[in-house]
TrEMBL record:
Membrane topology category: Multi-pass membrane protein
Primary localization class, coarse: membrane
Organism the protein comes from: Zostera marina (Eelgrass)
GO MF terms held by the record: magnesium ion transmembrane transporter activity
Localization per Swiss-Prot or TrEMBL: Membrane
Similarity comment: family membership: Belongs to the CorA metal ion transporter (MIT) (TC 1.A.35.5) family.
Region called Disordered, residue ranges: 1-23
Annotated protein name in UniProt: Magnesium transporter
Length: 433
């Protein structure tokens, strides 16, 4: 018997279509992940204004760089994002002041200002005004947009952050005051014309005018409330005094360095005193110790006087900031009073229009009442004509003067009935005759 052996059949490889796993990368194919990441970083163009020289510099910085440089959280930078609409806000942080006042969106530190770049004219005026004041060392007379702020003598010795904040408040007040003045110029002629001539065009113009007034009033009220909130909270005003906080931080770091150096020096002095042999000719260690303590007491007194000077300057600058905020509070309150007066004028015009329309409606009702009465009188003639139109033999119909008699009697009766209704309407006060 022939031993025939057949080769063993190995199991074939599974089909690649059966065990094919979905490629997760294919889901993101065609998407520019690098571009999405760059857009998420929030690259913005900032205008940097230096404190010492007053020069401006345009920088392209992302959100994380600004967060590290100004020590701010991401939610504060979100307030300055032009893609979002946030109300006016002034926030005092540890190392910066975040300002969002109308078109002025900036970060103020003790050494520089970062202003979000914009082509708005008031942003350019803010940069020019702050640069001019820093270079000349004194404030202008008219300010931005002709808005008169505090006096020059008062603002001359303010810290850098307060002067930058003052220019931002001046710009915001000038923006709102200019819009309020423009709204007044458009409003009063339109309302006067609407009072004399009520039509669809004038009513539509008044509706748009009122919507603009409500929006502007809300913005002015928000700025006013923000300034008032800062004035009523000493803690917020103290938080905005960045120069004082910087001085305190430097003083505390100097005190810590002084304590460390004193401890090291004292330890070295003790080790030398214990290791050195005692000689009757050498100077006693008490003299050296007294000199060391004298120098240390002088250094402590110097740092204590610096600390007290910073404390006194804090209270002075907080009071100066309060006076500064109070000055612009008066300006923004004046703008709010203008808008309030304009709103009252619009309300008075609406009341006048409603009264006028009610009067016209009453006249139409009276005219309709007269027409209804005349219809009743004419209906009497129709009843008489219907009676005489019946097919009955009546001797009065054969009289040649009968037709004239019927017309005369019907006319007199209708006139009498009409006058009776008119007197009745007048007696009841339904119609003024």
């Amino acid at each position: 018997m022939e031993d025939a052996t057949e080769p063993l059949l190995l199991p074939g490889r599974p089909s690649p279509m059966l065990n094919q796993r979905p490629n997760r990368r294919s889901a993101f194919k065609g998407i520019d992940l690098q571009g999405v990441k760059k857009r998420g970083q929030g690259l913005r163009t900032w205008i940097r204004i230096d404190k010492s020289s007053g020069n401006t510099q345009t920088l392209l910085l992302d959100k994380f760089t600004m967060m590290r440089r100004c020590d701010l959280p991401a939610r504060d930078l979100r307030l300055l994002d032009p893609l979002f609409v946030y109300p006016s806000t002034i926030l005092g942080r540890e190392k910066a002041i975040v300002v969002n006042l109308e078109q002025i969106r900036c970060i103020i530190t003790s050494e520089e200002v970062f202003l979000l770049h914009s082509l708005d004219e008031y942003v350019q005026k803010y940069v020019m005004e702050l640069e001019r004041r820093l270079k000349t060392g004194r404030d202008g007379e008219d300010g931005i947009g002709g808005v008169e702020g505090p006096s020059t003598d008062f603002l001359e010795f303010l810290p850098f952050e307060f002067r930058a904040l003052e220019v931002a408040l001046e710009a915001a007040c000038s923006i709102l005051d200019a819009e309020a003045a423009e709204l007044e110029i458009e409003a009063y002629p339109l309302l006067d014309e609407l009072s004399t001539k009520i039509n669809t065009t004038n009513l539509e113009g008044a509706r748009k005018l009122k919507s603009r007034l409500v929006s502007l009033t809300r913005r002015v009220q928000k700025v006013r409330d923000e300034i008032e909130q800062l004035m009523n909270d000493d803690g917020d005003m103290a938080e905005m005094y960045l120069t004082g906080k910087k001085g305190k931080f430097e003083t505390s770091s100097c005190d810590q360095n002084l304590e460390v150096s004193n401890k090291i020096y004292f330890d070295q002095f003790e080790s030398k005193a214990n290791s050195a042999p005692v000689s009757p000719v050498s100077s006693p260690p008490d003299c050296t110790m007294r000199n060391f303590e004298k120098s240390m007491s002088f250094a402590r007194s110097r740092h204590g006087s610096a600390r007290s000077s910073y404390a006194s300057s804090d209270s002075e600058n907080i009071s100066e900031l309060e006076m500064l905020l109070e000055a612009y509070f008066v300006l923004i309150d004046n703008t709010l009073n203008k808008l309030t007066s304009l709103k009252e004028y619009i309300d008075d015009t609406e009341d006048f229009i409603n009264i006028k329309l009610d009067n016209i409606r009453n006249q139409l009702i009276q005219f309709e009442l007269i027409l209804t009465t005349l219809t009743l009188v004419v209906a009497i003639f129709g009843v008489i004509a219907g009676i005489f139109g019946m097919n009955f033999i009546v001797p009065f119909f054969e009289n040649p003067s009968g037709f004239k008699s019927v017309l005369i009697i019907s006319g007199i009766s209708g006139t009498f009935i009409f006058l009776f209704f008119l007197l009745f309407y007048k007696h009841k006060g339904l119609m003024s005759l």
